[in-house]
Amino acid sequence: xxQRVKVLITGGAGFIGSTVASACLDRGIQPILxxxxxxxxxxxxxxxxxxxxxxxxGGLVDRIxxxxxxxxxxxxxxxxxxVPESVAQPIRYYRENVSKSLDLAEHLVxxxxxxxxxxxxxxxxxxTATARVDESSPIAxxxxxxxxxxxxxxxxxxxxxxxxxxxxxxxxFNPIGADPKMRTGLQLAEPSHALGKLxxxxxxxxxxxxxxxxxxxxxxxGIRDYVHVWxxxxxxxxxxxxxxxxxxxxxxxxxxxxxxxxxxxxELVAGFEDVVGEPLVVQExxxxxxxxxxxxxxxxxxxxxxxxxxxxxxxxxxxxxxDWRAHWFGTxxxxx
Length: 336
Known about the structure:
Order of helices and strands: EHEEHEHHEEHEEHEEEHHEEHEEHH
Strand order of the largest sheet: 3-2-1-4-5-7-12
Largest sheet: 7 strands, parallel
Distance between the termini: 42 Å
Strand content: 15-25%
Mean pLDDT: 93
């Protein structure tokens, strides 16, 4: 696929979507953003082609394709993503993540868009004895959020067969960091993921709570694969530029995007302390609703079919997340 391709990015004003847009711009690919700004930020659309609205709005999607008939591929990042919130509000999550994704797929097919990169999640995997998972590992989501991701994969696979729609589903592990150029990053002052909670606790002088310390891991805390969001964005660029080579003739291809390294929550705390140069007060707490043991990626397929692997370290992800908070929220932190 040549340069100056136009790409529709749903959720393009959010954390992942806006970073993917930045990576596209850096590679000569023009992103066209669609976002309803429920969680996205208008500031992240500055200088970019942006449409305010919902992915379920067929008239709006039709207008985007009428305005930009050169759009060759869609990247579907729009979703609600907070696991405890999904447990409390399952109806909202199924409507926003599943029902509206079905609407979007219909709009794409109607407009002749036959290539889709879908933002999926490693949360769909069943726990394994080693916590390592590859694309053939069993699927057994345990939260409404994770089930929405698995359900959308299933419906897209069915639609692909019936409507000549080809899908690459990128199963993210745990995004951290920010655009190293500080163009975009996590837009929430109080995020729900572990690194966000660490930064919040550090800035506010409060203890950090490890939720769940009885998991069958090397130190009892949950295990994750913390992948830098810029590496994730680069993975999307590879999926876009290599789509016609990689996309399965069967219509659906799943690929893990992670570091291939498992990091426990306690190890994440130790890494954070190394970056900021001082210890944190840590408290142990029970598991939250929807919490899981976690997993880390087998990344052989991403290397083989996309020519992609993560490059940025855990320490760089922590440092860029701290730098982004200072840049975005105006709080300053001294780090080594």
